[in-house]
Amino acid sequence: MSTDTAPGAAPLRLGTRASLLARTQSGTVADAVRAATGREVELVSITTDGDVLTGPLAQLGGTGVFVAALRDALLCGECDFVVHSMKDLPTGAVDGLTIGAVPHRAPVRDVLCSRDGSPLDALPHGAVVGSGSPRRVAQLLRRRPDLVVRGIRGNVDTRLRKVDEGEYDAIVLAEAGLTRIGRTDRISERFDADGWPPSAGQGALAVEVRTGAEGDESAAVRDAVARITDADAEVTALLERAVLRRLEAGCAAPV
Fold first, then answer.
1. Which residue in the list 34, 71, 87, 210 is annotated as catalytic?
2. Domains of the chain
3. Which of 15, 86, 219, 224 is an S-S bond match for 201, by CB 3.0 to 4.6 Å?
4. Do residues 102 and 204 touch, judged by C-beta distance below 8 A?
5. More confident residue, 61 or 227
6. Catalytic residue among 13, 39, 135, 241
7. Active site residue 169
């Protein structure tokens, strides 16, 4: 562990949503920054529109609704850095902000979680499958046009409970999230990335920081955060985002 941090330095503040997955991801990043720098990191809870508004996610602005409040808090100085799921991060640049690190990447695949453990091809005709992603809806109906695909909201455990209670026969989620919160026992099928391409950046985390002049506190934060980046994860995830940006597709399009 580095010990070059000035004695008495104030804790770094990491803004996070309150969901189990968000806090787990943020906690992992906080632990990595502590280990790399010796500086304390505290979590600051931020409520986003995606956490309080109801209705289909695509109609609310896609997964970007979870990002906006975190970015606002960062720009306003309520926190020093934030952590996003890379696949949820809009591709357009934001003045005053930059991605400071991409830590080690989790599995990139989509997975099926069904009530009885059946894989996708074994679900009954007309089975109800939940997904809030236009990409996943397109992929589901391409493979099984007989399915009834319905939107679904809520955190991972809420979605799994809706399957257990019979509201859905199955749901599609990212393997990365289930891995991070220890729910891989719920996976019924892992979709091969070649035949079922995931979102750009899926499985990667983006640690976002403020830009600023060298020598100010923002520069110190950028230096601390940069120490936890994984070179391979950073290159591949940012390249995938660059392709998506070139296509002008954004994080919600079925690409």
1. 87
2. 12-106+200-246 (3.40.190.10), 110-190 (3.40.190.10)
3. 86
4. yes
5. 227
6. 135
7. no
